[in-house]
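DM from R.C. (forwarded with permission)

"hey, sorry to bug you on a friday — could you get me a structure for this? deadline for the figure draft is monday and I only need the backbone to look sensible"
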Amino acid sequence: MKNHKPSTDEMFIHRYTRSQALADGALVDVSQMAQEAGFRLHVAMTSAAWADAVAWTDDDTRRQTPQDESGRLWDVLWMGRIAAQRAGGNSVVTVRLHRVPRDGRDKLPRLTALKMVMCHGDEGEPVLTIMLPAED
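My reply, with the result:
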C-alpha cells in the first residue's frame, strides 16, 4: 500500500450533495419558474438568498407594501436571466435588482445584489445557484 493513490471517493470525509441540500432546505428549487423566465438549467436559491430577496408574507404586505413571493421570485429570475445574457459565459454573475427589504418598515425598493454561480450538479450536469454575494 506504499504507493497507493487514493481515489476521488477516498479523499472525501463527507460529501454534501445538491440533492441533500434541496431535501434539507439549504437550497430552494426554483427551476419551474426559472424555465418560464428562459433558463434551460436547473436553478436553485440558497435559503439565505430566498429569505433576503423572495420571502414575503401577508403580514409583510400589511406592514409594508403589497407584494407576493411569486412576483419577487420572478423579479430575481428575470434580472438573473438578463445578467447571465450580459455576462458572456462567465460562471459567476452578479445579479442586481431592486427589492423591498423585509424589515417591517420600508415601503420603497432598494438596490441589492445576488450572485449566480454555474457549477456541476450531483451527476456532473450544469446547474445554477443563486446566493448572497458572501456565500459559496
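R.C.: lifesaver. The chain has a mean pLDDT of 92.
me: no worries. The helical segments are 8-11, 18-23, 31-36, 47-53, 58-63, 69-87.
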